[in-house]
Amino acid sequence: MRTAIIAKEGTLEGIIPEFYNQGDFLIIYDDEAGVCGEIIKVFNKAKTQGDGDIFFAKQIVAMDCEVVICGQIEEVPFLVIADECQVTRFDGSDKKASAALKMMEMEQLSYITDYIGGAGCPSEGSAEHD
User: Fold this and answer.
1) From 75's CA, which of 52, 60, 99, 118 has a CA 20 to 30 Å away?
2) 2-111: which CATH architecture?
3) Which residues on neighbouring strands pair with residue 27, listed in sequence order?
């Protein structure tokens, strides 16, 4: 499974910021069944042209990620990630990327059900999420 992580550094030691737009790096992590997980790609926001947050959202979709671990998300990147591709979103705010990955596997991270200021997802609080 491919997981996208928005962090302050381009390693699994990087901290996931409180808000998606505060992340400087997009880490693409691949953890296929039976194979040790590894970072397969890192994107640096400083090296992108235009809006880095939108670039990250489009790369999450293009890299075929099933999950993104990040902080709270603004409306436009949220719509790219959630509505266009239905990537599952987890809140890993203030955690090291490596710890957030483990917590996700143990189902200890909260879902991000809507963008900042949004009305929320109808399934919020239920066991089934997109």
Assistant:
1) 99
2) 2-Layer Sandwich (3.30)
3) 5, 42
